[in-house]
């Protein structure tokens, strides 16, 4: 509440403070006793009136010093009728802006002031009725102030919750963007890595085959051109997704596996495909199987060019899908590289398993089991 009290007064604050000043001034004039019922001197009455008017002026500063002004009002309330109106407003202000303990302390000071008032300025009316009426009026003012305070706190709590919800939503959106970028980076590794491996194999064949015929050179150059063109297209698709406000990276499907194997064969990699998986796989499982085979062929091109590769894809709904890529690879670096780690994450995301490493025969084996609901 302190910041609210000290901030620059807004147009709404000016309007509220003006209304409070008018109410306090009206209350002072209405409750002012001109001496018709009390045998007091004109000087005392004039001092009473001036005290009430001065206290009305302090209402303009009630937000800045609520407790101090309420205690001054308690001192003036010990003798002044004209101070009654602004006194109630100042007590209510304490209840609005200060904790309950402070409000009760101010109320205790005013209770003492009220007792002094009845001792200094006795009234012809029954004293118990006046005391009950004064207590009821003070209780109403304090109760209204406490209601306003609780309402302000509730609104502030709702605003804080809305701000926190907005912040959480913004952080979640940022995390979703980061996850999307990580997925795109993984797709770039999988797609472009395979394409560039094909380019490397054919370029290396041209470099180490100076005796190649014109037709063989032309064929290899055409494959290099086609692979480079496809790699460029894949890169354009990825960049297009990064630039677009909404969109998804084009994903391969399980049905594209034969095309992937055929591309590797054209690159000079002898691939034997054992495909026995009738039925329709879920899209996310099919993409994962495709990426596993793609990574296995890419590693074979890198570490064992020309060595035979066996790809086995078998499974059925309800039993799961088994994917295995194996090749003789004495120079392979099993367990290294981001690609295999990324495949392990992919398999885990679809609740599957992946393992890789050398077999007792010296082959490198990449195998995975992926769920296939019935």
UniProtKB/TrEMBL annotation:
Catalysed reactions, semicolon-separated: ATP + protein L-histidine = ADP + protein N-phospho-L-histidine
Enzyme Commission (EC) number: 2.7.13.3
Keyword Cytoplasm annotated: no
Claim: Transmembrane helix is one of the keywords in the record: yes
Chain segments carrying region Disordered: 322-343
SUPFAM superfamilies attached to this UniProt entry: ATPase domain of HSP90 chaperone/DNA topoisomerase II/histidine kinase
Protein's name according to its UniProt entry: histidine kinase
Organism: Kribbella alba
């Amino acid at each position: 509440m302190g910041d609210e009290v000290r901030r620059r007064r807004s147009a709404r604050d000016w309007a509220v403070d003006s209304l409070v000043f008018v109410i306090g001034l009206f209350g002072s004039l209405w409750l002012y006793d001109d001496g018709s019922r009390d045998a007091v001197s004109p000087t005392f009455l004039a001092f009473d009136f001036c005290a009430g008017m001065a206290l009305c002026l302090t209402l303009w500063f009630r937000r800045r010093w609520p407790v101090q002004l309420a205690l001054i009002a308690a001192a003036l309330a010990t003798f002044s009728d004209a101070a009654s109106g602004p006194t109630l407003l100042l007590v209510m202000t304490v209840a609005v802006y200060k904790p309950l303990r402070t409000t009760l302390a101010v109320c205790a000071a005013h209770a003492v002031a009220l007792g002094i008032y009845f001792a200094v300025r006795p009234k012809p009316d029954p004293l118990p009725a006046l005391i009950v009426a004064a207590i009821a009026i003070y209780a109403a003012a304090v109760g209204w102030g406490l209601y306003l305070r609780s309402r302000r706190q509730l609104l502030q709590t709702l605003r804080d919750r809305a701000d926190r919800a907005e912040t959480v939503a913004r952080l979640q959106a940022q995390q979703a963007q980061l996850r999307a970028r990580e997925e795109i980076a993984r797709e770039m590794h999988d797609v472009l890595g395979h394409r560039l491996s094909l380019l490397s194999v054919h370029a290396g064949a041209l470099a180490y085959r100076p005796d190649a015929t014109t037709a063989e050179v032309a064929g290899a150059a055409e494959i290099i051109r086609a692979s480079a063109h496809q790699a460029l297209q894949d890169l354009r698709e990825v960049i297009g997704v990064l630039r677009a406000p909404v969109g998804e990276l084009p994903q391969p499907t399980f049905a594209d596996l034969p095309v992937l194997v055929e591309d590797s064969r054209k690159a000079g990699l002898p691939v034997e495909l054992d495909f026995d998986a009738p039925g329709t796989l879920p899209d996310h499982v099919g993409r994962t199987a495709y990426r596993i085979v793609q990574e296995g062929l890419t590693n074979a091109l890198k570490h064992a060019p020309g060595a035979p590769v066996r790809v086995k894809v078998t499974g059925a709904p309800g039993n799961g899908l088994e994917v295995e890529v194996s090749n003789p690879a004495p120079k392979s670096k099993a367990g290294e590289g981001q690609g295999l780690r990324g495949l392990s994450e992919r398999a885990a995301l679809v609740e599957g398993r992946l393992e890789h490493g050398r077999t007792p025969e010296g082959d490198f084996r990449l195998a995975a089991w992926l769920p296939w609901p019935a």
